[in-house]
What we know:
Layout: E1 4-10, E2 13-21, E3 26-28, E4 31-32, H1 33-36, H2 40-53, E5 59-66, H3 70-88, H4 93-99
Parallel strand pairs: 3-5
Antiparallel strand pairs: 1-2, 2-5, 3-4
Amino acid sequence: MEVINAIGRRKEAVARIYMSEGKGQITINKRDLSNYFPAATLQYIVKQPLNVIGVADNYDIKINLYGGGVKGQAEAVRLAIARALVKIDAENKPALKAEGFMTRDSRVVERKKPGQPKARKRFQFSKR
C-alpha cells in the first residue's frame, strides 16, 4: 500500500500526517505518541477515529506537527487521521462524520482591536 497523506488544522496547530500499513505505530515529530502527549486524554483524542472504525493496529502514522497548544495539536491530528481514513476507504466517512471528526473546527482567537486592551474588553469609561 502506498503512503496516504492528509492535513488537519485546529486553532493555530497544523498536522501533516503520512499513513501507511503497519502495526499501529504513531510517531509525532520523531517522538512516540506517549512521549509527545503524556496525558492519556490527549492520546485518546488522537486515536478516536482509528478506534471508531476499529483499525488502530493496522496503520503506521508519521506526523509533522507545529503551532498551537497541546489540545489544538491533538485535535488537528484527529482531523488529519479522519481525512486519511476517508481517503483510504470512502465507506468510513458516515461513521466518522456521525462522531464529528470530519468537521474542521474553525474557531480561532479573535484579534485585538486598536485602542482597546483586548479583543472585546474596553478601557474603563470615565464620565468626568
